[in-house]
Design brief:
The structure is a homodimer. Chain A is built from 14 helices and 18 strands. Helix content of chain A is 36%, strand content 22%.
């Protein structure tokens, strides 16, 4: 049966890619209110596409962006939920893209566009898997329920609320999600752990408005200097976080994890090539993969204040603001961490400045039990679709909805990613390898067929 | 004779203000290439205005913005140069202005506009003084030569080059310049010292482009964190500058200066009201006026990097940049200081980041001998125009052209300001007190008449 389905996938690859290009054309940037209607149009297109495949599809309004819900028709004793998100990160800085982020470009075996790998391309592989099974086998061995949200990139909570409210109607045997990476180009992976996040905005004010640095300089605090000191007081030159109590709840690695990571590690050279950094950096005493997968971080994502235009303006700015996100790891509690950071910043902010710390969002870190039988099904499906044995990984990123599924439905979440770390998710020139799109669709079909 | 002239000034106040409003309508922002033609139009208007008053006026092209040169006609054995600048600082942030910065508004005894006090309003007082003397006395006791530049706010050097080149034709007995402050609303001042500046752009890069903070966070240096550490390593929490050797050449205050400043000091409460800061801040061991007038500073004027839009973007930025200006004091050498700062920043920048330090401009600090006889003429003229005894001040700001006049022409520069510290130069809602405009014109007329 699988060979029949795989042939269909290979035969229809060209059309699949054309459809994916249509999907990628929507600038569904959920974090910027200016794109609200584009997010909506993208959801409507997706709903329509799923209807055409024969699914019972609905575009469900929420307080922010729609949820696309679509189920295969007909009765089945088992049900699997397929999660994905159709929203994307902002595309700026636009001048650093080789081609328009919302005009998908096929070149060198990749499809380039914002959202290509994160997550439109990956979720589309699952949709094409369901289409291929329906077209070749007629019906599926289980019901497939797509839950596709539009707020993942902007800390939205509509799907979380929906899952909690609809809990009784969402009973499922497993949840499948592809928003993680493969280990490398030829090695698929199952991800069993994710870092959580704490996203903050930190604003420092001194004067009520910008003042002349000649007339007042020396007698007025400078908010850029204060904010700089706050940031450099939170994280040391060696990358260690200096906030008191910060590391208290970090769970040490199990022996098998240390050994597994030791075997997988050694990607420092790749990492330098992927990012263009001249030297690897990080917390002393840990390897690169340990740092990315298992250690918490403190990262300013952006900073601004005062004059940023051409030339010079000799002012003392009135305020400076930083967007800062921390990655947290098991068993850190993100709310507790947000509190520790706020409290520490307040304790070191000088009296002549005022400080506002706003918690923009938090999400929990997660660790799944790898002995779970669903993982075995996932492992076999990846082997079948990619023709290679998958490895077990943790992931440096955060997928808050995984927590929601785990906490609300109490079912394991199979994290099987078809993307590569070098795909440029959240960055410029984001791309998705066409071969992984196709092999991912095959692995998804194999998993659904096996349930 | 002066009474006649003063009556003319009082009688024509309404028209003078209308003309000043026309002058202020030009957005002559010299530091932003987008306003180049506005700067040019402003210079042409000014030239035309001076011609109409009967002066021999020329708008002289330079590599950047024009110089307006205008001389009273007829022979005279003495010559005084009147300096001013018709260019202005950028007006942003525009949303913090109560009225449009380029639509002058008269309210509460002030004229509000970008450039009202710095320097269009002040230089216009001198123009109106010359007009009033010509209209009431027919001719002047000395030749008045206006040199009005359009690059003062953007570190330009065209006037400096012009003065050096035209040195032989610019012989003068004194230079008069109004780009400084009065001591307070009722006390005019002569300024005998200025701080110099060193303006730098500091750029830190790590990765070649922004990368996902989940996929790479922990193994890649963050340029915002690095730049924050560089800034907070240059200046301590108490305001002391930490760059090795920085204070080496600072000349201690003379006893009479200490005593003079002690008498004038005590404006902490005003300063808090003017700027809205909740607490005075500055280098330990110095009073507020000492800090502003006589001590060097290190001020970030602006900072930017990474995501500055709405919501959150979980990236590690590729670069971060700060515009930083230092104020330097006698006998610091601005070039030497620029070198010290660059060298120090390079020595502390971590290996995983690359650093670019660009020196945008420098200007020398200056101290005039207050026993100079020209100061006495200035003192008497201010007394006559304002009806109050002027005080001697130093100034926290920098007026590079004063150095040029002093070094090239070897003539004393009389710094008699008609503005107030609370006028908001370089800030939003900049204004100029109408009464000071009028009293300034009278003082200028009295000084010219006395030479």
């Amino acid at each position: 049966m699988m060979q029949h389905c795989f042939d269909y996938i290979d035969r229809n690859q060209g059309r699949f890619l054309q459809e994916l290009q249509q999907f990628l054309r929507f600038p569904s940037v959920s974090g910027d209110a200016g794109y609200k209607e584009d997010v909506n149009q993208c959801a409507l297109w997706l709903t329509d596409h799923l209807k055409k495949l024969g699914l019972d599809a609905h575009c469900i309004s929420t307080r922010r962006h729609p949820i696309v819900r679509a189920a295969t028709r007909g009765s089945a004793s088992k049900r699997v939920i397929l999660y994905g998100h159709y929203d994307v990160q902002p595309a700026d800085p636009l001048d650093q893209w080789q081609t328009n982020p919302f005009k998908p470009d096929l070149r060198d075996g990749f499809i380039y566009a914002r959202g290509a790998t994160d997550d439109k391309g990956q979720l589309f592989a699952h949709i094409k898997a369901v289409e291929s099974l329906l077209q070749t086998a007629g019906r599926l061995p289980c019901e497939v329920l797509f839950l596709l949200e539009g707020e993942e990139e902007s800390g939205g909570s509509s799907l979380e609320e929906y899952i909690k409210a609809e809990k009784a109607n969402l009973a499922a045997d497993a949840v499948i999600l592809s928003d993680t990476d493969m280990y490398d180009e030829n090695t698929p992976a199952l991800t069993y752990g994710l870092r959580g996040t704490v996203a903050l905005e930190v604003k420092v004010k001194t004067a009520a408005f910008p003042v002349h640095s000649g007339s007042y300089g020396g007698a007025i605090g400078n908010p850029v200097t204060v904010l700089s000191r706050l940031i450099s007081s939170c994280v040391g030159p060696d990358g260690r976080i200096l906030i008191p109590g910060f590391y208290e709840d970090v769970r040490p690695l199990a022996d098998w994890e240390k050994e597994n990571i030791r075997r997988l590690d050694g990607r420092d050279r790749n990492l330098m090539a992927e990012t263009g950094v001249r030297k690897i950096f990080g917390e002393p005493g840990f390897s690169t993969l340990e740092r990315i997968w298992t250690r918490p971080t403190f990262e300013p994502n952006g900073i601004s204040g005062g004059y940023e235009g051409e030339g010079m303006k000799t002012i003392i700015p009135a305020f400076a603001v930083a967007k800062i996100s921390l990655r947290v790891v098991p068993d850190q509690n993100p709310q507790k961490i947000a509190g520790l950071v706020s409290q520490y910043l307040k304790s070191i902010c000088p009296e002549y400045a005022s400080l506002e710390v706003t918690v923009l969002s938090t999400s929990w870190p997660i660790l799944f039990d790898v002995d779970n039988p669903m993982f075995q099904a996932g492992r076999k499906a990846l082997q079948c679709g990619f023709g290679a044995e998958p490895v077990y990984m943790r992931c440096g990123g955060s997928i808050p909805v995984v927590n929601t599924f785990w906490q609300v439905l109490e079912k394991p979440v199979i994290l099987m990613g078809f993307g590569l770390n070098s795909d440029g998710a959240h960055s410029t020139n984001e791309r998705f390898k066409i071969n992984n799109f196709i092999r991912g669709a095959k692995a998804s079909a194999a998993l659904i067929a096996s349930l």
